[in-house]
Every structure is written in C-alpha cells, then in structure tokens.
Write a structure and sequence with these properties.
It contains 15 helices and 18 strands. The protein has an 8-stranded mixed sheet with strand order 8-9-11-10-14-18-15-16, sandwiched between helices. Strands 1, 2, 3, 4, 5, 6 and 7 form a 7-stranded mixed sheet that branches. Strands 12-13-17 form a 3-stranded mixed sheet. Helix 12 links the parallel strand 15 and strand 16. The longest helix has 25 residues. The two termini are 32 Å apart. Bound molecules: ligand BES and zinc ion (ZN) (2 copies). One zinc ion binds next to loops.
C-alpha cells in the first residue's frame, strides 16, 4: 500500500475512485452537505432522501458515477462540523479505506480539503488522515497459503494545502506512526512458534536497520546471567528457547542529556508455567509480548521522527513454559537490584522479568521511565478493551501522560497505586511475593511490585495494556478485529516529545 499527500486541485485529477465527505447539519431539518460543491449538487436527491445524512462513518458508494476524471465516488460521513476531532477523522478514514478496498480499485483520491474548511486544524487532521488510512490498511495474512497477495492500493490524499510546511510535516508524521504501529502489530500477531525471544530481538535489529542514531544491542542468556537478571532467568528456566534482553538506544540530543526510558514485557508465550492457565483461550497468550513489541515500535518512531531527545527502549523477552527446570511455586529468585522474591504463582511472571528491566533502567538515571505490559487479567475486568490503565505516583508525569493521550487519541485511565498495595506484596520468606496477600486490586498490586524496582525519585508510569493490546477492532475501526493493536506507541511518542 502507498499513501501520499498530493498538492493539487482535486478537480484536475484522474483516478478510478474519489472519496469526498459529508457533514450533517446541527439544525434538524437542514440537509447534510457534501464537501465538494459540484458533487453536492449532483447528489441532491440522495441528500433529500437522507441516503446521505452526514452521520459519522456513514459510507455511501456511487459506482460508475463518472464525475470529471473519476469513475466511482464514495461519500463518507464526518458527523456535525463542530464535532469533528482528530479521532473522528481517524475513524472516518477507516470507513474511507474499507470502501476503497471494496471497490477493488488500485488507486483512489481523498478530498482532504473537504474535511477542513481552512487552515485551522489542517495539520492535526492531516496527521489523523495518514494514521487512519495506514492503520486500517493493516492485514495479517502472511501465514495463509493462498492469500499472500493483497492488491496494492495507491491512495492520494489531495489538498490545496499539500505544500504547506505544517500540513506536510503532520501528514509525514502520521504516516510514520501508522507504519510503525503496523510493524509492531505484525510482531504481536505472529504465533509463538514464529515469534520467539530470539526472533523478537532479531526483529528489533531488522526494524532499526538504516535508521540514523539508533543502536540495538541484544543480550543472550549467558550475558543475562552475568548481568544478574534473576527474574528474567527464573521465568526462562522452564523454556527451551533462550531469553533475550533487548536494548535500543536513540541519540537525538546532547550526550549529557539524560534519556527517557521505555520498558516492555516481551513474553512471547505465556502458558502460566506450573501454575498453568486453563486451555480455553490460551492461544491468545502469544500476544503477551505486545508491550515489548510496542516499545520497539516506540523507539523506531522516535528515531524516524528524529525527535531531539535521548531515548532508550528495554525489552525483557522470554517464554513462560513448563520443562523439567521450570520455576516451581515457592521458588525464590533474586532480581538485578538485589531484592529477592518468592514465586507463589508462576503465572504472575511479567512482573518478574520487568523487575530486572526496571532495575536496569534505573541504573541509566533516566529523566523518566514508562513501561507497557499485558500484565494482569484484572485490568481487563476493570477497564475492558477501551482504556489502558496507567499507574503513577508522580503528578508531573501524570499531567504529561494525560496531555500525550489527548494528542494521540488513545484512551488512558489513571488507576490507584498506594502503600497499601505495596504492603500486600511483602514476602514470607523473601523480600517480596509475586502475588498479593490481599483481596482484589490485582492490577494495582502488580504495579506495586514493579515499583520496588524503580529508583527513588525517578518519575515512572506503568501502563497495563492487557485489555487494549489486541482485539479492540470492535471499538476502533482502524484496528484489527482480533489482532494486535499497537496500543500506546502513539501516546509514548507524544510523551517523548514533551522531553525535547
Ligand atoms: N499475561 C497475563 C495477564 C493477562 C491475562 C493479559 C489475560 C491479558 C489477558 C499475566 O502474566 C498473568 O497471567 N497474570 C496473572 C497474575 C495472577 C496470577 C496474580 C493474572 O492476571 O491472572
Ligand atoms: Zn502469566
Ligand atoms: Zn503474562
């Protein structure tokens, strides 16, 4: 698929398909408006009949419409003029892309100037347009024997503002973010046999190839042992696959500037270990590396966007399986920072591998640490698949997270993290237990466990993407119905921007 911004008057173009937009009126009896005046006139009967109502995401297709250089015309609803936001544009672009695809054409034009009347919001909407189209174009069919070839579609986003510096830069940024999210989604969608810790690390190396100022270092099992990462090693005990610790370093600012640090859970398959999970639905645990994949994506995006910041991405990666050497309930391991923990449930493994990654992050004395992890089933119970729950005790970072999420359009929800939760994680025989002694609040107690590995005074936020890491397509039309979403990549990039 190829997407570009064309600086042109739409009427001068020749293309098999054209997407124009419709806006509904805030007055009840007033007709909706099609954003191209000549097409509006031609479609008056449909507007009068309310076939075109302008409702958000409404799609009306006119095959063989033959308007100037265009054969087919697609009318996509934007909703009411004053209710159009960058998120609603992203969703309208999902409708546009699906309609283009259904027409079976290889080329289409999108009448961008119809969305924004003037310059206001133009850059914002250009970014959302690129994101919406590219995110919707994602398919994961490489494992189907017959369906490997998807038809290439060239989509031109056409605007008279196509040469405007801000609009161009915003479109380009949206395109980078869209393609990076799709890169991370693919890593998530690959099944456990094709996405091992080694393959995840190789993918980070491969993805970073040719990107300036981005370095990837991968530690193997021997090095992980030498580096005293007892949590990561302890979980990987039960697997025949070697663990990996992935370090991505991007230098976009002076060497003296402290980095911002992103940490991800890269559990390539989680069967629960000896505290084994029920069989039904276990196949979904191939997605347990989505936090890691999305941290890899975040670093790729930051580097591709050439942000003036130093950033580090850390991904701890292993399987959680059951061979004869697997960690047993009651086993005690020592994390990199010297703290000991009892493994009272081998299925609470994400926090163990993140313990080492957060300890290592702390040693870098970063300006802040954020992590992403499919950490707890309790998160899915609490927030379902709409919001990513985040935990932080730093109010300045909380403000940054909220601002970032407004910019990215991703939904986040602040969750509690208190000393009570910390108390619940005390161990009987070791410093800590990996499961709570209290009742409920499983996501907060997991966060409290993680907190024990973050250096004092370092602003830190933990994002539990258990509910949003995959299968959110029923909510967000530009996400796959069943597959990985790439959650928090766009928000993390927005957080990084606030440190430039
Ligand atoms: N990877 C799971 C969490 C998960 C479950 C994510 C379902 C998405 C959907 C994690 O490793 C896990 O199993 N956590 C346990 C912790 C419990 C044993 C304290 C859980 O949530 O049940
Ligand atoms: Zn688990
Ligand atoms: Zn897990």
């Amino acid at each position: 698929m190829a997407f570009n911004l064309l600086n042109k008057d739409i009427d001068t173009l020749t293309c098999p398909a054209l997407v124009v937009f419709s806006k509904s009126s805030s007055q009840k009896d007033k007709l909706a408006k099609v954003t191209h005046s000549e097409i509006h006139k031609a479609l008056l009967p449909s507007l009068e009949e309310k076939t075109i109502s302008g409702k958000h995401q409404e799609t009306v297709v006119f095959r063989e419409f033959s308007f100037k250089g265009f054969r087919h015309v697609i009318v996509v609803g934007l909703g009411k003029e004053n209710e159009i936001t960058h998120e609603s544009v992203r969703q309208s672009m999902a409708s546009a892309y699906e309609a283009i695809k259904a027409l079976n054409v290889t080329e289409a034009a999108v009448h961008f100037d119809g969305i924004t009347a003037g310059k206001k919001d133009a850059a914002d909407f250009a970014k959302a347009t690129a994101e919406g189209l590219i995110l919707t174009s994602y398919v994961f069919n490489e494992l189907m024997s017959g369906k490997k070839e998807t038809k290439e579609i060239n989509v031109h986003v056409v605007s008279k503002m196509g040469n405007d510096k801000a609009v161009k830069a915003a479109f380009n940024e949206g395109a980078i973010l869209g393609s990076v999210v799709n890169f991370s989604r693919r890593l998530g969608d690959l099944p456990g046999n094709l996405m091992t810790p080694t393959i995840l690390a190789d993918s980070a190396v491969e993805g970073a190839k040719g990107i300036a100022n981005l370095k990837v270092t991968v530690w193997d099992k021997a090095r992980i042992k030498k580096e005293k990462m007892g949590g990561l090693l302890g979980v990987s005990n039960g697997s025949d696959q070697e663990p990996r610790f992935i370090i991505m370093e991007y230098k976009g600012a002076a060497a003296s500037k402290k980095p911002v640090c992103f940490v991800g859970k890269g559990l390539t398959f989680d069967c629960g270990g000896i505290s084994i999970k029920p069989g039904a639905g276990m196949e979904e645990m191939k997605y347990d590396m989505c936090g890691g994949a999305n941290v890899i994506g975040t670093l790729l995006a930051i580097a591709k966007l050439k942000l003036k910041v130093n950033a580090v991405g850390l991904v701890a990666s292993t399987e959680n399986l059951i061979n004869g050497s697997a960690t047993k309930p009651g086993d005690v391991h020592t994390a990199r920072n010297g703290k000991t923990f009892e493994v009272n449930n081998t299925d609470a493994e994400g926090r163990l591998i993140l313990a080492d990654a957060l300890s290592y992050a702390t040693e870098l004395q970063p300006q802040m640490i954020v992590d992403a992890a499919t950490l707890t089933g309790a998160m899915v119970i609490a927030l379902g698949n709409t919001h990513t729950g985040y935990f932080t005790r730093n109010s300045a970072l909380k403000t940054k997270v909220e601002k970032a999420a407004v910019e990215s359009g991703e939904w986040v929800w602040n969750m509690p993290l208190t000393d009570f939760h910390v108390k619940d994680m005390k161990g009987t025989y070791a410093d800590l237990s990996n499961i709570s002694s209290g009742k409920g609040a499983g996501s907060a107690t997991a966060a409290a466990f993680l907190e024990q590995f973050v250096g004092e005074g370092i602003p830190w936020a933990h994002f539990d993407i258990a509910g949003t890491g995959w299968a959110v397509g029923n909510r967000l039309p530009y996400c796959p119905k069943k597959g990985a979403s790439g959650a928090m990549i766009r928000t993390f990039v927005e957080i990084a921007k606030q440190y430039t």
